[in-house]
Each structure stands twice: as C-alpha cells, then as structure tokens.
Amino acid sequence: MKNSIKLALFVGVLLVVGIISVLSKKSSKEGEIKKTEPIQITFWHSMSGNLGDSLNKMVDDFNKSQTNIIVTAQYQGSYDDSINKLKSSMLGNQGPDLVQIYDIGTRFMIDSGYALPMQNFIDEDKNFNSKVLEPNLLAYYTVDNKLYSMPFNSSNPILYYNKTALKEAGLNENDIPKNFEDLESIAGKLTKKDANGNTTQYGYSMAIYGWFFEQFLVNQNKNYANNENGRKSATTSVEFDKNGGGKAILDGWKKLVDSGSIGNFGRKTSDTQNAFVSGNTAMIIDSTASLKSILNGVNGKFEVGTAFLPSVNKNDKGGVSIGGASLWVINNNNSEKQKAVWEFTKFLISAKSQSFWNSNTGYFPVTTEAYNLPETKEFLKNQPQFLTAIEQLHNSSTNSVGALLGVFPSARATIEANIEDMLSGKISSEEALKKSADSINESIKKYNDSL
To answer: In 3-state terms, the chain is what percent helix, strand and coil (to 5)?
Structure first.
C-alpha cells in the first residue's frame, strides 16, 4: 500500500514537472517569436523618376542593415497629392507612420496635430547630435523653439547655363548674370533666330512658379507675410503687395519677357527644363534637385554650368530660403512604431545616406558630417555643379527663411495664375498683386477662423 502511494506521488511529480517544462518551452518559443518579429512601418513619399529610384535604394539598404524593422515605401504622387491623401487618411485613422511633406505644408501640419514633433525624439535620444544638421534647414523647420519635422530632401534654386552656348557667343564665366539687369543684357547676346526671324534659342527662361516669386522676395530681404513671415505669431495677411518686393519682381519679370530674349514656357517647370536640355534656351533657373536629371538629359550634348540665383536688384543680399521637403512622424499612438520610425529617420539623414542622396539627385546633404566623407569630397571635386547650391546655402543667413502659411499650396497657385495673366498682358503688375493678396488674405482668414 505504502509503495503504491509512493509510486503515485512520484508519477504525479513527474507529470507536474513535465507540464511546467512544456509550458516553459512554449512560453520561451513565443517570446522568441515575438522578439524576432520585425516592426512594420509605412513611409509615404512624393519622389518619382530618378529621385524615387534613389529613395527606394536607401529604403532597401536600411531594411538590409538590420532585422528589427521593415519599412515599406509608398509613392503618393505629387506633394499636393500626398498632403491631400494624408488629410483623407487621417479621418479614418489609416495614415502612414512616416510621411514626406513639402516645406510649404509646415504650418498646416503643425496646426493639424497629425504629427509628433521631431524634437521629442531628439530630446529622448541622448546619443543624437542635432548640431551636425545644417543650421539653415533647422531654422526653417523650427517653430517656437521646437523642431517639428526632420529636414530630408532640401534644395534651393540655382541658375543653369549652357557653357557651350556662352563660348559660341563670345562670353565667359565672368559674364554669368547676377541680377535681372544682367539677365536682360546677357540673354540678348545668347538669343538666336532663324532666317525668318523665329527664335530658335532664347537667352533665358524661367517657369511661372510661385516658389521663384517667394525666393526673389527672400533675396530682397522682404517678407511674404506679416508677423515676421508668420514666425513671430500666426500670419493674418500677406505683405508682398505693400512692401515693394512683389512689384519689383513682377515689373522686372515682365520687362525680361517683353525684351524678346526671354522664353516663357508656362507654369510647368518640366517644360522649361526640357527647353534647356534640348537647347531651346541657354539659361534657366530651377531647383538644384533637378541637377542630376538635367545632366542625364543633356547627356554630353553641351557642357552645363551652375551659378547662384540671380537677384532682382543689384544690391539684393538676402540669400535664399530652402525648398524640398521634410519628414513627419505621424501620431499613431504606437510608441513601438514611433521608435522604429525614429531609427529609420536617423538612417536617412546619416552622413553616408546623405552623401549618396546628394550625388544621385542634387539635393544637398542635410548633415555637415557628409562633407567629411572621402566619397563626398571626391564627388564634389569631379562634379562642381553640385557644389553651387551648397555654397549658396552656406552664403545665406539663418534669417533667410520663407513664410509659414496654413494655406500656402493654394496661395502659390493663386500667385502663379496672376503672374501668368500679367505676362500675357491681361492685367498689370499692380492688378496681379492686388488680386493675389485679396484672394490669399481671404483664404488666410477662413483658415484661421477654422482653428
């Protein structure tokens, strides 16, 4: 009897030990599975063509560099398309984890509450040194002493010129135009006509692009909007119609087009780019982000040179503001994903990534550490055209920043439409400025009232 009880107890102990062991192993395996499951994050962007290929390469490199995070990059169309899709997705809580938004979307993104400030992650990450980021870029995206988004693809407008055409016209590097007056003079010497008097090559062209209007204001040290361009407090009205800056731009622009040496290819920057690549215009202004594509398009047909953005007036010293876009961390209430997004963001702005990004696009590095890399030094030595935007950035003060405006996308379109009408002779420069200001101010009021 006693032996039977002892045997039963022994068997019971074995069963308990076995069950505990099985549960322990199961728990251990589940823990291992949980630890090895990568975090999935979605990244929305607006990079297409060569820019998209380069960005996808960077995403692939990040995914291969570690096993904890998988980033899925999704192209959302143009910058306008992307921000509109974000608005729709956020209504159903179906937005991305990270989104690329153009510079003029900054005020809206802050007011929307969609995103967490990048400053939160910088403050928490004691190993991250924000001092290596370009100060001009930080100045643009910092509002109320807080960095809301991370600079990523940053650019400024530069002058592109056909070196071969300059030489054929008996001109050299000393003749590169530095202001509107120079443009008119040099463009006249570069303009070619056929036997019938038709222009076969314009001396200069620039797209009817609101960004250029904004840049020419910055270069004059004139504000686009009140309250210190919306950086002291929220913008309530524009100033370009009252401070003389807008009139100087429009009168100078009209004078250039009326000279007959300046080509007007409309509002699409791609049409002006194509005119330059095909040799139909000898000089244009465009974003440095287009540099790689333009060089590929020219493909050795002629030598391409780059120079600083010409100013409106001889004595303008305001520099340029940045263009391009930045990265925003969407507030998805998932701290694990947010931390993963921060790791991916750090990868994108690292020296190595930004060196690659610069050499394959034309966007300049957002971190000064990229210039210390041998590959960057070698590239800029062999491709000096890419150095122009960098020098222009460093030649501009941190006060050379554009306005913050919640309705900037529509405001830019309004400016473009009225400049187009002015250049075609439908309205005067004064009328173009008044119509633009009245329309934009009305939109600003509606926007502010809705907050």
So the answer is: 55, 15, 30
